[in-house]
Amino acid sequence: MTIPTAVPALDEATDLSAAPLEPWQVVVWNDPVNLMSYVVRVFRTYFGYSLDHATALMLAVHHDGHAIVATGPRETMEVHAQAMHDFGLWATVRKATP
């Protein structure tokens, strides 16, 4: 086994900038278990949403079957989805569509 003795010099510029972060979404799905008032309370306490915004999201979940409740970096959205699970809500993470 040979061990390299020298590191070759780089004569070209290297672009070390990070790739742009692509947004991800937390989607909360309708379920037959949780009360609408409870879903509003979860959105208000966890996300800090106003009563009007939390109610609008809850109504979207109820009438449309789902609602996007948060958008951001994947790791953060995974934490939010896990928090929704901890509150007993059905939630998934998906890549945001343009």
TrEMBL record:
Listed Gene3D superfamilies: 3.30.1390.10
Adaptor protein ClpS core domain residues: 22-92
UniProtKB keywords: Hydrolase, Protease
InterPro entries, A to Z: ClpS, ClpS_core, Ribosomal_bL12_C/ClpS-like
Domain of life of the organism encoding this protein: Bacteria
SUPFAM superfamilies (alphabetical): ClpS-like
Function: Involved in the modulation of the specificity of the ClpAP-mediated ATP-dependent protein degradation.
Quaternary data: Binds to the N-terminal domain of the chaperone ClpA.
Identification of the protein by name: ATP-dependent Clp protease adapter protein ClpS
Species in which this protein is naturally found: Microbacterium maritypicum
